[in-house]
Every structure is written in structure tokens, then in C-alpha cells.
Amino acid sequence: MKRNNPNTDELFxxxxxxxDGYFFWGxxxxxxxxxxxxxxxxxxxxxxxxxxxxxSARMAGYVRKSGRAPRNxxxxxxxxxxxxxxxxxxxxxxxxxxxxxxEDKSFLLTGM
Length: 112
Description:
The chain is an alpha+beta fold. It has a domain at about 75-110. The protein has helices at about 45-65, 80-95, 100-110, and strands at about 25-30, 35-40. The chain has a two-stranded antiparallel ribbon. The radius of gyration is 17 Å and the shape is flat.
């Protein structure tokens, strides 16, 4: 049995953030003594690494199956990557339901 998120009373979804900053990745097949599955919580850096790896694998599978590269498959510049990471982190913060300070909002929106 999968444990529900106490905040939403729904099952945990990949990418949900815990109060200590760790991200939910999934469940294992091991069962705890209380009858629920063991949960996998990842450090933020590890979460981003695994998420990027999963996205790259999905994109590679698309290229193998279709025989063509996806649109806009060029590599991002460092500035574009930094902007994308800032937007993704902002979206993750907004989805986590945790309040952001005004300073955090300012930094995420302006980069300063």
C-alpha cells in the first residue's frame, strides 16, 4: 500500500518536496512493518541529476524509434541553461506548496 501525502491526502507524486528539501522519487517494492511501501526521497542535487538523466534517456529513445532528431535539439548556451534551471526551480518551488520569501521570488524572477 502506498502512503498518502499528509498535506494533500493524495498519493505522493514525483518531484514533491519535503520540508527538509528532499524530493520524492518513487516507491520500492519493499514493505515496511506498517504495511506501506518504502519511499525514495532524494537530495535536491541528486534529484536534478536523475531527472536530467531520465529526460535524456527518453529523448534518446525517441531518436532511436523515429530515426530523426526532435525539433530544437540544439544544445543550450550556459546562459540559456541557467535561465531554464531558474525557471524549473521556480516551478518546483511553486508546485511544492511551500511559501517563498520575497527575496527568493525576486532572485528567481530576476536572477539578482
